Amino acid sequence: MVTDVRALDGDEVVALARKILTVAPLLRRVQPERVLLALGYPQLETVNEFSRFGDAGLGVGPASVGLAADGSAETVAVPVHAPLPRPLGPEHRDFVQDVFSMAGRALIAHFGEPAGLSGGGSPALKWHFGESALTLVRGGLDVALYLWRTIDLEGDE
Q1: Fewer beta carbons within 10 Å, N or C terminal of the chain?
Q2: How far is Cα 138 from Cα 117, in angstroms, rounded to an integer?
Q3: Is the pLDDT of residue 124 over 80?
Q4: Does the predicted TM-score (pTM) go above 0.85?
Q5: What is the DSSP letter of 141?
């Protein structure tokens, strides 16, 4: 069992979701740095051509704001647990699944049943809020919350 990796609890996941939803109107309208500023996440020096990173202050790793082709903010992503130590073992996969299940239950309790559910290698729960979509995704190594504009997800439904 993995006990030394920080994971947000259910209340923290809901608070994080509510916080990132506040910047939904900024997506595709402003630069990523303005989204980080609106979230109150100090920008980190680490950058790449696709994202800008900020310190969410949650002890789970940096938030990222993805760039659209025009340089505006396209998406927000925040992990709900700290990075896992390497090498990964079966207990880490169980941890990721447990975090995804806990976070999903908390979000369902707060926002209601998701509008979409996808399975497979990267299961996801998706809630629509007007022009925005909040998605909880379980990757192979992590669980994160994503905020997108709904129109950017067309064809992904």
Answers
A1: N
A2: 12
A3: yes
A4: yes
A5: S
